[in-house]
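Lab notebook, design round three. We kept the backbone fixed and only want residue identities now. Task for the bench partner: fill in a sequence for the structure below.
Input structure tokens:
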């Protein structure tokens, strides 16, 4: 038997088991996983030696913002640089957000984001659809599901941007998701109290004294916790599937854990890697404004509680909320903390950070990393039995990781399109030595070697599976 590619000698890690095995690929699919495939089953046009390495499914970052118009500018990573960065970090699929602007329909928003990606993306992609005007958009949701876009997004904040949804809209959207077999993603922060806290500190004296620290001062934990509690209640009442994005607090983690104890299997929560490794002391540094994201990085006890939530399965997914800005873009704040473009680069360092600070620090094992970065994202977001695992019939999305080799983070040598990194100078293991996207090698010897347009739109269905 002849194969296109055989990956030999590595330790294949899935969420359910780890084994010494070879992986055979024909076309874009994995066709066999087992021992000594090359010796007993034939040859291949390409043999990749993975001896001494982990062979894991390509990661799926379910929360990215590429080429996003936001905060008076546009995020600096587009579908060119962003997906190259993803590939180098072992991420083979990204899910962005198709957000309507002004009076646009959901169809308009999806078409706009498709144009950003089509013919440019180097890895596979999908979209969540933002429902920003409930009365106008609710009747389009069924069409979105039919097009393979079964996950929707609502923001409890961002009134100025025209994105904000109130309780009525969120309640209705959860009902609609239940009807359509969809899932609602919610950015959970309490808007009116948040606006009040910002208004109290938005004065020249405080901004001169505290600078970027005000970004953290005005977003205490209860701003997120109260909003999560409200969203969970609406999910409980409606039975709609709810997914809390970028959860950043210990308080929120406790609320999700309590929901699960009460049997709410329709409630999910992700965190982002910055909330696991950065804390709000960064805001007091000279370049503290660079670290502004939304929600903002919190405190050490929040980090430790979320790490525990990952291990106990309270937190089901680790993503990035990638939204990159250059130093020049971040400088738009000019000392006004309400004008900082909020967001951090993350695609290239997602797996390395989870591996270095999760696996190497013995917080959990490799199977847990694969569950949180590969298997659960695929299962919960509706990719079915084609992504998130190294098994026969699945897409040949694979990352090969050396267990010990560390690379120093340097923005100057990365694919990410920024002139700084939140992790500059950090020594991280877990970068992908070799990345395959649907059978094609797109990273070799830690260098990107893929091509624009290889990445394809991936329709999905039936999200929210445990």
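Proposed sequence:
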């Amino acid at each position: 038997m002849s194969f296109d590619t055989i990956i030999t000698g590595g330790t294949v890690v899935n969420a359910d088991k780890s084994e010494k095995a070879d992986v055979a690929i024909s076309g874009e699919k994995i066709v066999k996983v087992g021992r000594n495939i090359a010796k007993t089953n034939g040859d291949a046009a390409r043999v990749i030696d993975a001896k001494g390495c982990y062979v894991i499914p390509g990661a799926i970052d379910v929360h990215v913002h590429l080429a996003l118009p936001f905060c008076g500018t546009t995020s600096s990573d587009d579908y060119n640089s962003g997906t190259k960065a993803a590939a180098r970090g072992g991420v083979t699929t990204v899910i962005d957000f198709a957000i309507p602007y002004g009076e646009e329909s959901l169809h308009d928003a999806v078409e706009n984001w498709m144009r950003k990606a089509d013919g440019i993306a180097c890895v596979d992609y999908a979209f969540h659809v933002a429902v920003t005007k409930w009365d106008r958009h609710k009747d389009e949701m069924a069409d979105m599901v039919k097009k393979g876009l079964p996950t929707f997004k609502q923001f409890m904040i961002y009134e100025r941007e025209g994105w904000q949804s109130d309780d009525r809209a969120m309640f209705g959207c959860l009902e609609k998701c239940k009807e359509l077999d969809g899932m609602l993603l919610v950015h959970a922060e309490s808007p009116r109290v948040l606006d009040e806290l910002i208004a109290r500190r938005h004065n020249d004296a405080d901004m001169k004294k505290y600078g970027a620290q005000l970004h953290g001062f005005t977003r205490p934990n209860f701003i997120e916790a109260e909003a999560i509690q409200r969203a969970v209640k609406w999910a409980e009442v409606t039975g709609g599937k709810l997914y809390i994005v970028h959860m950043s607090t210990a308080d929120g983690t406790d609320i999700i854990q309590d929901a699960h104890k009460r049997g709410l299997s329709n409630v999910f929560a992700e965190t982002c890697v910055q909330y696991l490794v950065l804390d709000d002391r960064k805001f007091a540094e000279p370049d503290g404004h660079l670290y502004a994201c939304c929600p903002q990085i919190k405190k050490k006890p929040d980090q430790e509680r979320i790490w525990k939530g990952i291990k106990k399965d309270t937190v089901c997914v680790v993503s990035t909320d990638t939204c990159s800005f250059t130093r020049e873009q971040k400088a738009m704040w000019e000392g006004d903390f309400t004008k900082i473009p909020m967001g951090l680069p993350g695609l290239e360092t997602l797996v390395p950070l989870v591996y270095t600070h999760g696996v190497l620090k013995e917080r959990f094992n490799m199977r847990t990393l694969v569950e949180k970065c590969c298997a659960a994202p695929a299962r919960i977001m509706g990719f079915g039995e084609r992504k998130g695992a190294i098994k026969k019939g699945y897409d040949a999305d694979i990352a090969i990781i050396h267990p010990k080799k560390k690379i120093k983070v340097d923005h100057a040598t990365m694919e990410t399109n920024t002139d700084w990194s939140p992790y500059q100078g950090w020594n991280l293991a877990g970068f992908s030595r070799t990345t395959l996207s649907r059978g094609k090698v797109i990273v070799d010897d830690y260098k990107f070697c893929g091509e624009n347009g290889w990445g394809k739109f991936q329709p999905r269905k039936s999200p929210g599976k445990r």
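Keep this in mind before ordering anything: The radius of gyration is 21 Å.
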